[in-house]
Specification:
12% of the residues lie in helices and 36% in strands. The chain is built from two helices and seven strands.
Length: 80
């Protein structure tokens, strides 16, 4: 898993996946206080090439992120 692309290589088949390390998901709501609902994990809407196509075109309720920048994992939940 790299900063710009994710590559998966299989010994007998070679490179089977070579896509951008990007993810589109619902935006996290930032709740503060005792009335905050429990945090649930957000499922990705799109990843790879499809998420990159959505970049700067997504609605306000969707965010397109790159969980890895400069070789450092910024969002562990998204990287999983």
């Amino acid at each position: 898993m790299g900063s710009s692309n994710m590559r998966i290589y299989l010994r007998d088949k070679g490179v089977v996946i070579d896509e951008p390390t990007m993810l589109a998901r619902q935006k996290k709501r930032r709740w503060i206080g005792l009335s905050a609902p429990g945090v649930k994990s957000l499922q990705p809407m799109a990843y790879g090439d499809k998420a990159k196509e959505m970049l700067n075109r997504e609605p306000k309720s969707v965010e397109v992120i790159s969980p890895v920048k400069n070789g450092v994992i910024l969002d562990i939940e998204a990287a999983e």
